[in-house]
Amino acid sequence: MPDPTQPVLDFEAAWRSAREVDGWLTEEQARVLHQAAGAVAPGRVVEIGSHLGRSTIVLAASGAAVAAVDPFPDDWRYGRPDTEQRFRRHLAAAGLSDRVELHVATSRAVREQWDAPVRMVYVDGKHDVWSCLDDLRWSRFLREGDTVLVHDAFSSLGVTLAVLRDTLLGRRHRYVGRTGSLARFVVGTPSASDRVRVLRELPWFARNLVFKVLLRLHARPLARLLGHTGSADPY
């Protein structure tokens, strides 16, 4: 179990450690995670998809207990055989190992055996439609009004389709807004305006798809001309 007596770090201190870890979480998104997790501390936050620990550090620094769930596959684009070891080293360097309970398994396998309270869920696992929809089922452990955060919600086709299906057809999550591609939901029955709000993000999603295509075509000058200054995909 994570140690609740570990010291809480303010966001600036947490980000100094987290930004040294490779990942796709922006500073603004990290601040949202830190604040949302801090609001439920010392309650438990479940993180689906930890990779090298950038987001895990921010979550754990808030004072919340973190259950990090990741099978650490080495057969995907950014996976390596030593990813888990690097993750553990980054947590140790940040002094937060004792606040994180690591589950080296798939999201579904852990969820099917889960029996503890959860106060927040952060989804950044596999980016296909069905995996993301399955990860969102973790919210069954949350209370009315609790937070679900989804990364790459409007920059990955699979995640965007999952978000649209869940918000437009589901009755569990209300879309609140986004910070970049980090979407925020609260547990509750969505209203018509909640459903419309997520549809209004589609032009921004289309913009991101255009930039991703341009980067795949090595057309960075054109991407810059259209407003994307980074070398990485928009997230």
UniProtKB/TrEMBL annotation:
Alphabetized Pfam families for the sequence: Methyltransf_24
Record-level GO BP terms: methylation
E.C. number(s) listed in UniProt: 2.1.1.-
InterPro entries: SAM-dependent_MTases_sf
Record key words, sorted: Methyltransferase, Transferase
Taxonomy, superkingdom: Bacteria
Keyword Transferase: yes
Signal peptide: none
UniProt GO MF annotations: methyltransferase activity
Protein name, UniProt field: Class I SAM-dependent methyltransferase
